[in-house]
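For concreteness, we quote verbatim a single protein encoded this way:
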Amino acid sequence: ALANELREAREGGSLRLSAELHRSLIENAGSVIKAFIEAELILASMVGESRGDADIDDEEEIVEELEDVSPEEARLNAAAVVVRFAATAGALDFLSTLVHERASQYVSAGEHAVEDVVMARFAEACYFSLSVLGRALADASEDEMPCVPVEFLSLTNDASGAHNLAATQLTFNRALESLLRASDADSALLRLDAERGSHFASPRVSTALADALCRVAGTYLLPIYESTQRAASSLVSESTVLLARSVCIGKAIDNLLDRG
């Protein structure tokens, strides 16, 4: 019945969907994005293993077809869009937990000085989860006005009651806090590397963190436009904003001192 309604809406040129169909699409999107992320993490666990020429040729063909975006960027952006759409189906909570787990594993591996290939796998998993979360929380501000994604705005404007708004705020703040904890953990690993003269902290992970924090800062922490500020304040608590500003400044200083 749901499939028929979706087909009829498409054929009739109507964008209106019943509440039941919309709810079903969100729930299915939540399941799909969880499976997709888990599959990507399996690929991350294979970093360092040899690949056949056929795989490399396939990637080269994809790059030629997508001139303006790499296959990796396309996957990350697509995943972020689905996470936003399925935020109420647990997708954002799932991703927040994943970021916390992968960042903890990554830092622990560095602290225990594991083999390079093992460290690379932990770093890749951390990079992927951070990259998706950063893109899900905010759009890039390059050449455009930073603004709260419409998917999150629709949740704050939901007329179904204050309980749902409170739940949305809790989920969003939890996601932002997982990003901040990951940043602190990466900075701790950078300091440990400096003390030991080692190089376990991954520049790739730091790049993902810097990108995510820049996206978040321009939209929620230091919004230029009043309309953006009002929208951001409906999602992020003042205490989280103050904490996030401190983390962003500290991370910028760490990157300058450790990597120039």
Summary: The chain has one domain: 2-259. The CA atoms of residues 26 and 86 lie 5 Å apart.
